[in-house]
Protein: Nickel pincer cofactor biosynthesis protein LarB
Amino acid sequence: MSEETIDGGVSPQGYVDLGYAKPDTQREERTGVAEVIYGAGKTADQIAGIVGALRGAGQERVLITRLDADKASEVQGLLANRDAEEFEYRDTPRIAIVGGLPEPDGDAYVCIACAGTSDLPVAEEAAVTAEMLGSRTVRLYDVGVAGIHRLLSHADDIAGASSVVAVAGMEGALASVVGGMAKCPVIAVPTSVGYGASLGGIAALLSMLNSCASGVSVVNIDNGFGAGYQAALIDHACKRAAERRG
Amino acid sequence: MSEETIDGGVSPQGYVDLGYAKPDTQREERTGVAEVIYGAGKTADQIAGIVGALRGAGQERVLITRLDADKASEVQGLLANRDAEEFEYRDTPRIAIVGGLPEPDGDAYVCIACAGTSDLPVAEEAAVTAEMLGSRTVRLYDVGVAGIHRLLSHADDIAGASSVVAVAGMEGALASVVGGMAKCPVIAVPTSVGYGASLGGIAALLSMLNSCASGVSVVNIDNGFGAGYQAALIDHACKRAAERRG
Amino acid sequence: MSEETIDGGVSPQGYVDLGYAKPDTQREERTGVAEVIYGAGKTADQIAGIVGALRGAGQERVLITRLDADKASEVQGLLANRDAEEFEYRDTPRIAIVGGLPEPDGDAYVCIACAGTSDLPVAEEAAVTAEMLGSRTVRLYDVGVAGIHRLLSHADDIAGASSVVAVAGMEGALASVVGGMAKCPVIAVPTSVGYGASLGGIAALLSMLNSCASGVSVVNIDNGFGAGYQAALIDHACKRAAERRG
Amino acid sequence: MSEETIDGGVSPQGYVDLGYAKPDTQREERTGVAEVIYGAGKTADQIAGIVGALRGAGQERVLITRLDADKASEVQGLLANRDAEEFEYRDTPRIAIVGGLPEPDGDAYVCIACAGTSDLPVAEEAAVTAEMLGSRTVRLYDVGVAGIHRLLSHADDIAGASSVVAVAGMEGALASVVGGMAKCPVIAVPTSVGYGASLGGIAALLSMLNSCASGVSVVNIDNGFGAGYQAALIDHACKRAAERRG
Amino acid sequence: MSEETIDGGVSPQGYVDLGYAKPDTQREERTGVAEVIYGAGKTADQIAGIVGALRGAGQERVLITRLDADKASEVQGLLANRDAEEFEYRDTPRIAIVGGLPEPDGDAYVCIACAGTSDLPVAEEAAVTAEMLGSRTVRLYDVGVAGIHRLLSHADDIAGASSVVAVAGMEGALASVVGGMAKCPVIAVPTSVGYGASLGGIAALLSMLNSCASGVSVVNIDNGFGAGYQAALIDHACKRAAERRG
Amino acid sequence: MSEETIDGGVSPQGYVDLGYAKPDTQREERTGVAEVIYGAGKTADQIAGIVGALRGAGQERVLITRLDADKASEVQGLLANRDAEEFEYRDTPRIAIVGGLPEPDGDAYVCIACAGTSDLPVAEEAAVTAEMLGSRTVRLYDVGVAGIHRLLSHADDIAGASSVVAVAGMEGALASVVGGMAKCPVIAVPTSVGYGASLGGIAALLSMLNSCASGVSVVNIDNGFGAGYQAALIDHACKRAAERRG
Amino acid sequence: MSEETIDGGVSPQGYVDLGYAKPDTQREERTGVAEVIYGAGKTADQIAGIVGALRGAGQERVLITRLDADKASEVQGLLANRDAEEFEYRDTPRIAIVGGLPEPDGDAYVCIACAGTSDLPVAEEAAVTAEMLGSRTVRLYDVGVAGIHRLLSHADDIAGASSVVAVAGMEGALASVVGGMAKCPVIAVPTSVGYGASLGGIAALLSMLNSCASGVSVVNIDNGFGAGYQAALIDHACKRAAERRG
Amino acid sequence: MSEETIDGGVSPQGYVDLGYAKPDTQREERTGVAEVIYGAGKTADQIAGIVGALRGAGQERVLITRLDADKASEVQGLLANRDAEEFEYRDTPRIAIVGGLPEPDGDAYVCIACAGTSDLPVAEEAAVTAEMLGSRTVRLYDVGVAGIHRLLSHADDIAGASSVVAVAGMEGALASVVGGMAKCPVIAVPTSVGYGASLGGIAALLSMLNSCASGVSVVNIDNGFGAGYQAALIDHACKRAAERRG
Structure:
């Protein structure tokens, strides 16, 4: 570490320097969303340390993604009292929340649609992330295009959303069909569901990038977090617009 | 060439040896479909030589695929009288036909659907090939999933076909949606229509191979010929079944 | 879930909404084949729930693919009495059948050929799927092209089939050789058998997509199910043709 | 074409059937944005035909993308009088506009940032598309990260936008840096600017999909159109939110 | 250039230093085969300079590969008298020979088999290279596996060869079938013949690397030269063995 | 299985039909080398069954490759007495031999060179295979190009060989350097040794396919067996040549 | 452009804003090397504008890379008098220099080695770039490993350099061999020289990234500029070290 | 092994021949850095043998990379007394050191920057390697571009370094931003941190190869060793330059 680092102290530069990490305490002010912890590839000690630093710096809620159940228990055991008490773990999306979910704000909602039952973990990661950032959500699960009547019977849910997160593996066709039905931005999430030429989700990713429907953008494979995050940013933009008008 | 080759003569082994090519005069008997000429990478001289050999060996109709307009003229100029007279060239699918198309046989039909206007050359290659092999065809063009009502309004055409050839570039989602609507085999043809991450048709190819609909098989990128050919083979199988019953 | 969903009830839209899944009860009517369960990535609970919903909606037979032996036991334990009694598991293709195989109908048959002993699981998945959908089958195993006399000695089996499913890993050359021998459609299944530059089956997949023989279409790597399914659809088309004629 | 097609007539199903194309006259009602023409792979005749059909069906403005200058002249020559008069072509983004750009609506703006001078055509495609759909735009060109002070000096433009379109080739790092500075969604557009291991834009595409900043989604390589389109959809969502509030 | 280089002089280190090239005058002694010139990416001036240097250093015959017809004329015009007189150009394999082909030595022969007419340029490059290095050749052209009787009727040519060069594009199955028939090494040459998923010859390359037949090795796509070269090295090894015995 | 199969009997067509396998009893006569068993993906039962069939049909020696130690014990336990006694297992190359290695025949030798210690398993697979087919071998291990004096000090071993098998992972440069030193064919074996951008051996494979040295051909990644096999075929060709002369 | 931009003026933020470009006038101070112009994808007008801005801001020398001869003439015609006079174009590396090359400073030198004659354009780009940044150079051309004595005879040139730039296409083995001989950093430049499985330089790139020699780092395919640049930075570091000592 | 090998003896050719390995005892003299052991794919016995041979040949310090903790214990147990005593293992970088780290020499330092906490193992491998070769180091950890103020607050550490090692996974943007800030060479290390479209580090690798900043070269994915090694070689070059001047 360079010499001017004060271990564990809140640096005036807008981050805490823990040596192994520099949690960004300026992020909420800068981007409207507080620092989130990506759990993969970090030890339980490191995660607990970062949670402590963020909460110590005044952050109300902390989201930890990509955390398996065993490491979650370990992290919880390492946290300070109040943090440990407010620690909640959800199995399907492999997410931990410290400080609880906020109340959704406003009447807009993000619609989370997924093609098959195997896509649920990713869809739930998107849904919980959006909720953590203040959005209301509506879930449409197992509405893949092989039985397109299932999707068409929910046309109103899609038409009324502020954004749609479309989650699908295999050929990822859901995104294009939804894209042709929606008035709002569609954020497509390819999943690694499939085998062989699905190439771990590359097939769905390429499919979504080449969507013949126009309002579709794409995040990384299995990145439910990123899609839920951007959906919430759209809600934030809408709220700012409404406030300017209101 | 090995010594036992008799130049240009019909070998008793079931092919004509032209040195640069050995047209297969046994193919119709073996597979039910006479030899077809793949025009790319052959000179006009070679193509004309092969046409001559096949017609000389008694083949009634010859199909030449992947032939550009200039080479087609050159080939026509090199053919013997009767062959030149019966030579017909079609621009969109870049196909030449010597000996004319046969009358379709029976009331079954192959449905050729394509996603966009840019897919027409491939769709037409499929249609003409199927017609050359005796099938009746119904064409549904520009029915991509971004405006899915266009496809749904033709549900009867799909329901009644003996097979559907689904032609699409970009994300190739058409194949999955059709696959969920059809009773018959769907043969999917990815096209190279698109740019960037379409990777020259690889995106559509992978998409179709990973279709969440079950009755979909796939041929090479832009291989309208192969799809039309297999669709006709299905018709041939149906005819044999009907004849056994009849 | 959107509000109009009635949990577990048969929706008039043609599916049952279980929250985590929406089994398609309209599929048989629409496509001629009832809903099939893809077992990978679903929990035993979810699978048992879907089986129950389909059987409850009147579906006679249910096929579950990609199910390992342990999860199969677990599923069986969760099923209702009659469903559990009629549950049968097959190790090699990792398939479960609820409600038994139907009697094959008619004298046509699907020929399932595979290149090597290591390809058996995929070949059996194709064979059992086709049988489940009502087709008769003939199996030709370990007939790879390195000893081509093994294949040639079965030329009659290939010539007489309504379709051939050609299963091969490594270089996948079997499909092309069979394609040059057959009168009927050849559905090629690349397998992940091989190592190094086989790239998990991509080499065989590309090989089959580029087959120099004309009547060959391809399904995903290791997708015996998809090939058996399409072979059965061809048989269905033949039966419809024969019935129209008869 | 299937029999029920009335050539050139407005079908009650919500499209015009031109045989080679079925322009979607229901799109504006369904998605809030009228049909756009993708010019690549279509002949001038086809493009002119589609423009005519859309304008005939009452569409006020038509955008044609991926149109080179020569084909643009040809199209203009083929159009009916009023359409030809209102036809405008822009060289850099290779876009034609029929019917003029609308006045931007509201005080929100889309910020279009690009990394280098060679990215201008894509950035301009995004900007004009967003303007065509009613958005106001602010352009920040040549602000790549190798001289990051150029970007940092425009922090206010980024902070105030409703969305940022970040356009970059080579390593595409601009998207991540902008993502760390913005409160709003960032739509990243990889470009094919670069050589060698840029793989025609794949390097930038992968980079953007893996952005360590959270609010970034991605469109296809060189797809300025798609990014501008989604940026405008976000503005539309904001307007709807403001109207609900207002 | 480093200072100790004597421009154009024969360096005692076993090469001539021309600045832009250092032709290897020691190669024949070291490897049994004299220096060959790869014509692609060199100017006519450079090629002529290297020919002059090699001939000046006593090399009897010079082979130039990958030389198009126009550059060949230009090179010939730049050569010294005797070299220009002994310069011969062959169109199909795009090869130039200075000093003529040697008489084949011994009764062994290399069998060059290719799958289709479009593979001829590569097959001829292999054949002429082998002949240039002293081998006798037998050509079997257009013996692809879609009509396998054509290949089987030449089983004796394959059985009697010292090595077989198997040239094929598309799926490259020829190599495996030949590999199952031959007693000798098979050198497989994938070609770029094909389209779409042939990926410029990658499909055939992977296919050949994964051959289920055991005695098959592979060279680069379209590298007829390399295959002919190695076939000749096998003949050289056989000659040395025979001489040791004789 | 098709009906004409006689289970376990030696079919007059030149193979034994075991249902799950058809061991090729005609291979030695046809190719000069008896059937070899690829152990991966076969059960111990299947392997033992094939060994029994081959030995029962008179094959003296059987080689089993890609066999891990546990399965080897299991196979040995399942073999008939004499076969089990003559069963020998080698750990490094994961090979089993039934019936012992033959005496090498003649004074020629195959030189097996490998770049690093981690390449030993593949190099030993090549060496034992060549020995099993009657070749004499010389091993040069850990002679990678980073310390090229190690290789240069063995120049005589390379110069005197009938062929060189060059085994290397990482960048695979050994093949090119050996190719520039050898008079005989070089068979290059890329290995999966490496990490990251070695892509499981693809880097070494591509490197070897693009060797700037001319007499180099390549086998699949980690395919020591294939390289040893082809090296032995070259020795066989040399012996036949010497016998013709002698 | 955002409103605060003063067209063409030197902004106090350390760049000139030309609208289409923001040349970085702070770069020399920050990185020790003044702004360089990447010529590809820029119009002659744009290039001339940037040259003018940089020279106007006091930059003595300007390097323009990837500039073809025709555009170079055009640029020269558009420059102001003094700039046009000091404009020099070099064909092989396709580089233009405005303001001349500086005198090399110090006795250190960069050694530029390339494998073959076809690699000269890239090698020269590296050499001229290093010279432009003040380095002395020694060129070793056509020293590929197929005739390794050519390289070994220049061992002293390599041993004495401050860094070696190793330029090679095809399999790129030169980098590893040089890496095993050098005391200094080796900067490897893969080139697109080759065909087929060279994949436009990817084979050489992967090879160099996996070098078994330890002191090798790599730049993009054909990026002679980047390698020369980094070689010069090493010289700069050495000079600073010497000055601190001196 | 070829016959002239004396097992375990120090060969006069500059290496020790252990049969399974030929440790290079000439490397320090030739390259300035003694032989290093790559631990992956070697047995503990082999590693201990090589350590013994190198120390026996007089090498003071031995570095072993890619060694997991269990194998490290095993190696230590197999070493001779003095070697075992001087054996030290570090968990994070998975490195063992025999003979201790040297004192850093001079006042220059290598700056090691990494983007995130998950990159620490690779960053530490780089740091320890550089220290082992005599360099002083400064570590900047978790300074990724999503919170760029963390990096900018360390601008002086970067400005003063002799080289910067920039370690990052995901999109690897750190290298470009650092490249735009540094006066010295930047050696970029992509890591395999990430998921989905990070493709095991390929995304970061491509990103770094395409850096828009000029002084950046790249090593293999996760190759901290290679980067630390080259950084130290730059320090060595600086020391030689200073000594020449001093």
The two ends of chain E are 49 Å apart (CA to CA). Chain E has two domains: 27-98, 109-242. Confidence is low (pLDDT under 50) at residues 1-10 of chain E.
